[in-house]
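Known limitations

Files may contain more than one protein. Parsers should not assume a single record per file. Below, a two-record file is shown to illustrate correct handling: read the sequence, read the token line, then continue until end of file.
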Amino acid sequence: MKLIKPQDTGSALAVPENIPEGITESDEAIFSCITDFELTAEQQERITNPQAAYSRVKSLLAVHWHPEFVPMDLIERRISAMFPNVEDSLIIPTQHNVLMYRNEFAGVEVDCYSRGFNQKVQLLLHFKKERLAGADVLKSMLEHTFKYRSSQLFEYIRAITRPNEEWIGSAAESTGADAALVEFVMKASKLSHHQRMKREDLVCCLEDLTESIRTGKIVIERNGQFVSLTPPDTVSVELQAKMKKDKGELSIEISWKKPLEEPVSAPLIISSDEPEILLTDAMEEAGLDDQEDHDNDAAGDDDDDDDDDETDIPK
């Protein structure tokens, strides 16, 4: 696979506010522009003319082999060049959840769940190609598994780009992941960077940051990893300036928290009537009475419950 890098235009890439979940025509167009699966003449030459040949090999076995993006005709030519005197061979290509063929044989690598191992396992299926005529159930299972595995990839990407503590907690609980693994996944949404740059480059960097803050969305990217931030209208800013002999330091920290829901307080009632104090059914079932409250008061209740919203009731 060859990657084609677009030319640097010096302008920042625009990141849409709402990224669609599915693959769009624009996504496919961008992917086609930067990705090329066609083999060059040099690559084809290297495939069909291997550096070494094994003329003494008479039998050849390959039943777990991924052809990937190399056409079968080039593969056949490479095998013939590497093993020119083979008399007996069994070569069956296997691809994840996709049937592949060579001569009279077919093969596929199937992703399955094993209750005995309590994890995913991979099975290699090899059989005569003629038996596929009545294998409708197998074909349906492979199609379903292919779509399911693809959806898992999108779920994984979504969990990283849009972290959700409930998702991560549920996944950690169901898979038995330890705290170290969970911390590693959570750190995927954190990016640190350090480099030396010229002052004019620093100005350009700060101007990009200022413009991103002005738009309300900051996306910082490096080597394919990125963090997307959406600062609110009001943020906390901490600025420090230091000068010691020949070393100067200027640091700016911008932070914010998600808005917390305001606690719901009981309504305040003002009147000249004293309320009637009733012992609720729940208190009766719990065995609470005035004597127990008195004992607790005498012993000194040192619990950590918040008492700010409690109201003194006259006795």
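...continuing to the second record:
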Amino acid sequence: MKQIDQALQKIELGKKAFDEAEQILAEILQGDSVPSVIEQEPVSEPLETRMEEAGLEFEDKTPPRTDLVCPLCSSKVYDNRPNKRSGQYKETSPDFTCSNIQDCSGIVQGDVRKLRKSWWLNSKDLPQDWINTTVPHNPEADYVNTTKNNNQEEEKSSPF
């Protein structure tokens, strides 16, 4: 029994020393310009605005996605980006919304009614393949291929 108590005391001392070392390291790193391992939030200012401020012309030729599926309920997801650009929807409305307002697990209760699951381009749970696009090789083309391509040669090439 005495040996168990001694072992536990050693473990407690080691744990305490580890906590102290962690605290000292945190204090040292607090002032350094060490990059964080926490991913930075995406820039909240839209790209279009930043390009306008820089004096560059911007024209989005990406067609709305029609092949999107809700990861929560497998229902169709609407791409609202073109409607936001045209002014039909408010600028604060979501970029993507689930079509299932009945039983999707992402539904939240609003002030007056249930609100369907929605995503903005900077949402943390936005599936990356929803915004993956391939820039056309022909600069005169007025389309962007939004379908996934399994051709490995094209995946290796840079879209720019």
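Parsers that stop after the first record will miss the second one. For reference, the second record is described as follows. The longest helix spans residues 2-30.
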